[in-house]
Amino acid sequence: MAEKELKKIFDSESACTLVSELRKTFNTGKTKSYEWRVSQLKNLQKLIEEHEKEIIEALQTDLAKPEAEIHVGEIGMLKSSLKTALNELRNWMMPEKVKTSMTTFPSSAEILPEPLGVTLVISAWNYPILLSIDPMIGAIAAGNAVVLKPSEVAPASSSFLAKYLGEYMDSSAIRVVEGAIPETTALLEQKWDKIFYTGNGRIGRIVMGAAAKHLTPVALELGGKCPVIVDSVINLQVATRRIIGGKWAFNNGQACVSADYIITTKEFAPKLIDSLKHEIETCFGTNPIESKDISRIINSNHFDRLSKLLDDEKVSGKIVCGGQRDKSCLRIAPTILLDVPEDSLIMNEEIFGPLLPILTVDKIEDSFDIVTSKEKPLAAYLFTNKNKLKDEFVRTISAGGTVINDISLHLAVHTLPFGGVGESGTGSYHGKFSFDAFSHKKAVLYRSFTGDASVRYPPYSNGKVRMLKALINGSILGIILALFKLSKD
Predict the structure, then answer these.
(1) Does the annotation count 16 as an active-site position?
(2) 3-222+431-441 adopts what CATH topology?
(3) Neighbour-count burial for 82-117, b at 16+ CB within 10 Å, e otherwise
């Protein structure tokens, strides 16, 4: 192997050197300043504004994403995140004044957000630009050094990120490492101050296992089977459009908050299916597999995985809409399946594609039992006009987030935390939650040399013990009584 090729290999030694260099930068205090943080966020803003065309080209190369979806789901989301961070950063960085207790009187206290240090962001392929840069915004805003590992499954996007982040960002504190399993493994062997991973539970376990060796905190943004409960008391056309928008017009179902399966009543299912068929044709034409307004499957491996779900003998006869496939162009039409068995493959793994099973129940309230019998999803959705059903849904269903009468829009609200629970992940981000995800909330207590009470020091008398108990309990009357008795001791 030529010497030039040897230099390109990124192994454990390379990763160790990289982390060491970034830690040296972090230890200078450079990344902690407000000015540095703002300059890097503005550089990200500039990068996105000046290279929208290249972002669109990369995403269309990797996923054949429609341009409108790119602007809304990737570029627009990033611009919004950056605007929020730049507008709010000074407030986020301010210490939070908090009350103190009698035990420490006289004193003052505050909570100071400080950066964690050198952080690692491992991104996903389904929204390869958004899910790379969005966590970085939080890490930079919080004052950290950052290494980004983009997904090799979206190579055009990975190449874009490596090239332009290298040009626009401060390379002494922000780096990109491209590659696959060997490079990710080398990175995970190092000691980080925070690892932020977006992807599936299988890799999430590997990330958490590697982090545990160094007691490194992790944020895992995973997924799960996101249910959609559809009541009959709804605006059917609006509900149907929103389901389509949250499934097939949302990276063709290749999204962690995508509708994974529907539950409705046996009586209402035919009306819902007819409406879905009609609106699918309205959105994507009579032959949706040829539509330019729908993303393709990311690669042949995922195409084969989805085909396996469809070819399962337990569900192959359950298709009521779609099912067409073309491996040559990695396209699968929007597909609806009715009354698939709960022990089928499609109901026991996250679909992450354009297949949508419908389960039926006698009463809509019975749907809650189905959802709660499974692992907690990243998101759960309900369509209804019944206030009682809404309240019961929010109280009963544990999920990373819930939305009533729409799908996935909660991730666009920066005042809401976005993250999972249980198998769907740990930790959250977006808006200030991104800043918090990469910050340590340091407790700071200020005291002067006045007000030093001998009661806290040995030797301890009964009176001192009474006084200490009163102080800890915060009882004014107890303190008065203890002082009175102490004066008599």
Answers:
(1) no
(2) Aldehyde Dehydrogenase; Chain A, domain 1 (3.40.605)
(3) bebbbeebeebbeeeeeeeeeeeeeeebeeebebbb
Compute the average pLDDT of residues 345-350: 95
Catalytic residue among 69, 256, 321, 350: 256
Q: What does the alpha-carbon distance between residue 75 and residue 73 come to, in Å, rounded to a whole number?
A: 6
**256 in active site:** yes
343 burial level (CB within 10 Å; 0-12, 13-18, 19+): exposed
Can you give the pTM of this predicted structure? 0.94
Structure tokens at 161: 């990120």
Please give the backbone phi and psi of residue 113, each rounded to the nearest 5 degrees, phi first.
-75, 125
Q: What is the CATH number of domain 227-419?
A: 3.40.309.10
From 69, 74, 183, 221, active-site residue: 221
3-class DSSP state of 184? helix
Kindly list the distances between the CA atom of residue 307 and the CA atoms of 73, 154, 221, 255, in Å, as whole numbers in the listed order.
26, 21, 26, 18
SS3 473: helix
- Residue 429 in contact with residue 85, Cβ under 8 Å? no
Best CA proximity match to 486, nearest among 463, 456, 459: 463
Domain boundary assignment for the chain? 3-222+431-441, 227-419, 453-488
Token readout for 191 is: 């000691």
Q: At what angle do helices 130-141 and 34-50 cross, to 10 degrees?
A: 160
Burial of 120 (0-12, 13-18, 19+ CB in 10 A): buried
Assess contact for 194 and 120: CB atoms under 8 A: yes
Residue 487 has pLDDT above 70, yes or no: no
The pLDDT tens digits for 205-223 are: 999 999 999 999 999 999 9
Judged against a pLDDT cut of 90, whether residue 374 lies above it is answered with yes
Q: What is the mean pLDDT of residues 334-341?
A: 97
pLDDT for position 473: 80
C-alpha Rg value of the chain to the nearest Å: 27
Q: Tokens standing for 343?
A: 């022990």
Q: How confident is the model at residue 461 (pLDDT cuts 50, 70, 90)?
A: confident
Residue 483 tokens, joined: 């002082």
8 A C-beta contact, residue 357 and residue 326: no
Q: Provide the phi-psi class of 425: left if phi over 0, else alpha when psi is between -120 and 50, else beta.
A: left
Q: Which helix (H) or strand (E) is 168 found in, with range?
A: helix 155-168
> Is-contact 442 112, C-beta < 8 A?
yes
Please identify which residue in the block is written with the tokens 């605006």.
Answer: 235
* In 285-355, alpha helices (H): 300-311
Residue 171 has pLDDT above 60, yes or no: yes
